[in-house]
Amino acid sequence: MYDVAIIGAGVVGCSIARELSRYDLKTVLIEKDTDVANGTTKANSAIVHSGYDAKPGSLKAKLNVQGNALFDQICKELDVPFQRIGSLVLAFEEEEMKIIRELYEKGLANGVPQMEILGKEQILALEPNVNDRIIGGLYAPTAGIVGPWELAIALAENAVENGVELRLESQVTNIEKQGEGYRISMEGQQIDARYVINCAGVYADEIHNMVAAPSFKIVPRRGQYNIFDKSVGNFVSKVIFQCPTKLGKGVLIAPTVHGNLLVGPDAENVDCKESRETTMERLAFIREQARKSAPNLPYHGVITAFAGLRATPDTGDFIIEEAKDAKGFIDVAGIESPGLSAAPAIAVYVAEILKNMGAIGREKWDFHPMGRKMIRFMELSDAEKAEIIKRDPRYGRIICRCENITEGEIVDAIHRKVGARNMDGIKRRVRPGSGRCQGGFCSPRVMEIIARELKMDMTEVVKDNPKSYILIGPAKSSSVLRENLDAAAASKTW
After folding, report:
1. How far, in Å, are 59, 177, 425, 448, 487 from residue 162 at the CA level?
2. What are the FAD dependent oxidoreductase domain coordinates in residue numbering (predicted)?
3. How far is the C-alpha of 132 from the C-alpha of 188, rounded, in Å?
4. pTM, whole model, 2 decimals?
């Protein structure tokens, strides 16, 4: 029997798994998809919010500010890209300046440090590309940007290194109360656990309803984004927000930790919990809204678009508590924005709940907080590159020219503790396919490397889920194809 089962391996589930790996517990992390970070974590704004937006006294406010303060240490320990670049909320009229002052007061109540209300000239000095029609705004220097999937993957890897078991492709189909805990049924397998932590994202209400009476509902809210080429990545240096509305923080413009530019999202409630398609209509809306903040936004530099889902609760706040009619079952639900920012603090908060239940005993003497560093070849000095290539010639072979990713980095990503098993898994870990050509040149080589290292046929290499196949078989030679066409024409079997 496991002591703790965590359902859902997004950034919150992975944060909790890593936090619990500090203790003498038998813990399992369960994920329905083929990889960790495969839901909301893989498609969001990648912002570490400072914490002025949430209602004072709410869990969102408390855990956002606490989580923000933990990012420097966690990202240093786990070798995750993080930059504390600050954010600006822009106001274009006096009514919006009232909102700016309200945000400032909420930030003070929430304990956000170093905020300032700036005038037009101060903002334009910081960000000359924003709209000169602004009249002022709120500056929060503690805001930052992070690699969200890199963070979740590193958290999961460190958790596994410290004894947590990870089960992928294990969709929970039923949970039954047992004498000492719960029996969790997955496709073709069952496990028992004394405590269950529900981190199932947009499916958290459905998981909750397996063991308890319905007490909240999760509405999937889709947000679409554009990613710009690195050639325009320095268009702004900070996260640029518009004044928030009831639907969220609005369309933002922000640099990414990898040097691109991100614009989005919109906010659209959808019925399907897997609805991640983009639409021309909504992307046009984002473009129009973003130009309010920056009229000269270089849209010729867009290289791709994507959509993600936010798990919006009908309660208006994070839901982090033991279910009232299911002892030992802890909901961690409705973790919409600022969920990424709050994730480290949510993990500590959940550990405290378990301690109060008597579920957690002593800390491990051999817990190791440091993640195994990744070799980012193009960031090395010439001398370091020469030494790496001498040890392993695969680091001297560039596979992705847009992002300058080597074969050695791809092979390492496959064979780590929580290694990549498909094309998207490689892309999230070391970025081939993330550049200007979007994998047009490097994808065949990446597929060859995955097939070779995992000892599979290339037709078995998929983009993401088992049904997202890329190849269906070898192409026939032109002469064989011509013979087949001639035979079909002769027999009139078109």
Report:
1. 29, 28, 22, 32, 62
2. 3-352
3. 60
4. 0.94
Residue 52 lies in a domain: yes
Q: Are residues 32 and 49 in the same domain?
A: yes
Alpha-carbon span 215 to 264, nearest angstrom: 32
Average pLDDT over residues 120-148: 98
Residue 493: band (very low, low, confident or very high) from pLDDT cuts 50, 70, 90 = very low
Domain check: are 321 and 455 in the same one? Answer: no
- Tokens, residue 452: 């070779």
Residue-level length of the chain: 494
**DSSP-assigned letter for residue 476:** P
DSSP letter string over 283-312? HHHHHHHHHHH-TT--GGGEEEEEEEEEEE
* Distance (Å, whole) CA 290 – CA 241: 9
pLDDT tens across 166-211, in order? 999 999 999 999 988 999 999 889 999 999 999 999 999 999 999 9
Same domain, 424 and 333: no
59 & 160 share domain = yes
Instruction: Using pLDDT thresholds of 50, 70 and 90, give the confidence band for residue 484.
Output: low
Half-sphere exposure at residue 90, Cβ-oriented, CA atoms within 13 angstroms: 29
Q: Which residue type, as a one-letter code, is found at position 225?
A: Y
What is the Cα gyration radius of the chain?
Answer: 24
DSSP 336-405: -TTHHHHHHHHHHHHHHHHHHHT---PBPTT---PPPPP--GGGS-HHHHHHHHHH-GGGG-EEETTTTE
Active site residue ranges:
49
Nearest to 309 by CA among 333, 284, 290, 336: 336
Q: Is 369 in the same domain as 381? A: no
Instruction: Find tokens 């993401």 and name the residue.
Output: 464
CB atoms within 10 A of CB 435: 23
d(CA 485, CA 454): 37
Residue in this structure with the two tokens 């998207």, named with its chain if needed: 424
Asked whether residue 29 is assigned to any structural domain, the reply reads yes
Tokens (6 digits) for 12: 């919150």
Domain boundary among 344, 373, 402: 373
CA 152 to chain centre: 7
Q: How far apart are CA 448 and CA 410, in angstroms?
A: 11
Report how far residue 328's alpha carbon sits from residue 322's, in angstroms, rounded to the nearest whole number: 6
Surface-to-core class of residue 396, CB atoms within 10 Å of its CB (0-12 exposed, 13-18 middle, 19+ buried): middle
Q: Cβ distance 295 to 214 under 8 Å?
A: no
Range of the domain at 29: 1-83+143-217+314-373
